[in-house]
């Protein structure tokens, strides 16, 4: 099967994970904001999205391409400061159509936030979020930034891609 990676990010972590996944699998990488590639041209797709202010950045691209995503395997990886769990699950469910969330396989990676590289609006929202965050570690991350990038985190996703690429195409 032939696949591709489409990603949307804001500060570089999601793109870095896309590049690492591409290096490990040979899949082409497309920035969803600039790509003229069509997911319909591939047997399966990997969608990468950063989470900015509790929303997936790829959500508008997904809405435009939803019919072509639901008829093929979709692997979604999210990149955020949040560890896998109910909080991140809620953000995914709030950002993407239920039909895609139930159809896709999901992987969660932690990223990086350089607080000095974000705009004033994002810093303000993060400060407000920190005031409401009951988790002291999460509060610290929202106020001061973090770097949780981990190349080995892609291993389960890469293994799943290898399974898909070893599967013959329909009719082959």
Your description of this structure?
With 172 residues, this protein is of the alpha/beta class. It has seven helices and eight strands; from the N terminus they run βαβββαβααββααβα. A hairpin with a 2-residue loop joins strand 3 (44-52) and strand 4. Helix 5 (120-132) packs antiparallel against helix 6. The longest helix has 13 residues, at 13-25. The mean pLDDT is 92.
Describe this structure in a few short sentences:
The chain has helices spanning 13-25, 59-69, 86-95, 98-103, 120-132, 136-144, 155-166, and strands at 3-8, 29-31, 44-52, 55-56, 74-80, 105-110, 112-113, 146-147. With 172 residues, it is α/β, with parallel strands linked by helices.
Q: Which features would summarize this protein structure in a list?
A:
6-stranded mixed sheet; 43% helix; 7 helices; alpha/beta; globular; 8 strands; 172 residues
Low-confidence stretches: none
General shape: globular
Mean pLDDT: 92
* Main beta-sheet annotation: 6 strands, mixed
Class per helix and strand makeup? alpha/beta
How many E strands?
8
Radius of gyration: 16 Å
Helices and strands, in order, run as: EHEEEHEHHEEHHEH
